[in-house]
Every structure is written in structure tokens, then in C-alpha cells.
Amino acid sequence: MSPKQHRGEVTSDLLLDAALRLYTESGEQGVTVTAVTRTSGVSLGSLYHHFGSLDGLLTALTERWTGRLLEQLVTALTSAGTARAGIRAVVGAYLAFVRDHPGAALLVHSPRADRRLMARGQEVRDAQQPTVSAMAGWIQPRIDAGEIAPLPMPLLETLVLGPVVAVARRRLSGVRDVDLDEAARILPERIWRSISADGA
């Protein structure tokens, strides 16, 4: 990497980190051009050079943290020996992400992120394809071995992540009636019953 490329990467990181800090403190309305440039110490011109607009900065920030979440899920899944252990690992990793990175988790689960997904779902999905392929590569042999029910991959994904995403959204909305540790203890077994080949 050339010195110029390194400086560009550092500048991008400063802007993204500042945007996340502001988002965590004040929500999307707190992420203004003035606030980002003041917090990051980066010029307005550099913000537009690297991201094109404030919307581009927020999109890049959402993609960065969605990617990090997916990487954590893949790492957790591929570290597990059995399908059942994989489900437990994925649920634990997802809820740990919500607990450890509340601002980023709020952004990833935000109405803004949902709107982008609804408007450009295939494009978003295509960008996530390497991660999705890694997950599918771990799951398919366990279907072939008779551990996991032979369901279409999108339905398996929904059965596994749907309940976890619902808990995350509930927690991130400010409702404190779900304990993340309790959810990490209870959900994996319930989810496992929904996807295991023998239903047990």
C-alpha cells in the first residue's frame, strides 16, 4: 500500500469512526456533516471525496458493520464441530455483537438499513455472497449427513436467524424485557428443533 493509499484509508476510518460515535450518541439525526467533520477532524472536502455524500458515509458505515457481524457469525459457525453446536455458536455470536457493539447493532437493524435492503435487496445480498457461501458450505454437508433437515437455504437462514434478529431488535428498541444471556441460553435449542432432521 502506498503512503497516499494509507492516508486515504486512515481518513476514511476517522470519518467512519466519528459517524458511528455520533450515531451511537444521538441517532441518525446526530450524524450531520458539521458534526462528522468536527468530531473526526477531517475536512468537508475529504468527506465528499471518500464517500460522495453524508448518505454515502452512512451506507459505508452500515456495510462495514454488517460485514463485521457476518464475519463473526461465519467464524462462530465454522469453529463448531456439529450442527447443533453451530446453531448455539451463531446465536451466541449474534447476541454478543448486539451486547458488545450497541451503536453498530442499532445501525445495522435501523429503519435506514431496512429501507436500503428493501430497495436494493439483490445488490445487498450479492455483496454478502462470500459470507453466505461460507455459511452454506458449512451447512450443506450437515444436510447431506442427515443432521439438518433438507430445507431450502433461505428458509434455513430464516429459521436460524429470524428469532435472533427479533430479540436483537426488541432489545435495541429500548425494551429491556429480554435478557440477552437468557436468550443465548434458550434460543439455540428451540431453533435446533426447527431445523434438525429428526426434529429433536
UniProtKB/TrEMBL annotation:
Gene3D superfamilies: Tetracycline Repressor, domain 2. Residues 32-51 bind DNA. GO terms for molecular function: DNA-binding transcription factor activity; transcription cis-regulatory region binding. It comes from the Bacteria. The keyword DNA-binding applies. Pfam families: TetR_N (PF00440). Coiled coil: none annotated. Keywords: DNA-binding. Signal peptide: none annotated. Residues 9-69 form the HTH tetR-type domain. PANTHER family: HTH-TYPE TRANSCRIPTIONAL REGULATOR RUTR, TRANSCRIPTIONAL REGULATORY PROTEIN. This is TetR/AcrR family transcriptional regulator. It comes from Streptomyces tendae. The lineage of its organism: Bacteria, Bacillati, Actinomycetota, Actinomycetes, Kitasatosporales.
